Amino acid sequence: MTDLRPLRIALASDHAGVALKDHVAGWLRARGMQVVDHGTHGGASVHYPTYAIAVARAVAAGEVDLGVLVCGTGQGMAMTANRVPGVRAGVVCETFSARAIREHNDANVLCLGGRVVGPGLAEACLQAFLEATFQGGRHAERVAMMTDLERRGDGPARG
Ligand code: RB5
What is the pLDDT of residue 158? Predict the structure, then answer.
């Protein structure tokens, strides 16, 4: 297992992800990461977009290097975070994709489902995500197409 570079990581969850989020916070801090925990902090029902927006904005503003979001499935968090320009969020529940979204898609937010993955699998996904680096090359051209769409907005297909 590769030692991880110390990074600033913004973290948040809704009520369905709070137990896994707290576990992830401890795991990251134990590996020297600077964690900015945007909540939630208890089991009371909350709206996941509030938390996804907070982390996504922190990532897009460069206040942190990466973000981690946890809800029941990870999906609502990713859908919301991906609406913030500059954010590329992916949901993972296995390590191949956790590595690939960094290497190929230059993902800057990892989303996990607290009702989908247990703490051990979440740790393995985090390790894979954090030790991977963007490979650039042909992948950079594809990521640039996403950024272009984000900048221009949708319109007639341009191939
Ligand atoms: C909350 O019940 C659940 O809908 C939420 O955590 C998440 O899974 C949404 O994507």
Answer: 59
Q: Considering the domain boundaries, does residue 98 fall inside one?
A: yes
The catalytic residue among 15, 23, 104, 139 is 104
Nearest CA to ligand 1 atom 9: 76
CA distance 41 to 14: 9
Which atom of ligand 1 is closest in space to residue 75's alpha carbon?
A: 10
Is the pTM above the cut of 0.90? yes
The first and second tokens of residue 68, run together, are 């981690």
Residue 104 designated active-site: yes
Q: What confidence tier does 157 reach under pLDDT thresholds 50, 70, 90?
A: low
* Residue closest by Cα to atom 10 of ligand 1: 76
C-alpha 29 to ligand 1 mean position (Å): 26
Q: Exposed/middle/buried for 121, CB within 10 Å: 0-12, 13-18, 19+?
A: middle
pLDDT digits (tens, 9 = 90+) for 19-33: 999 999 999 999 999
Q: How many domains does the chain have?
A: 1
Query: Does 102 map to a domain?
Result: yes
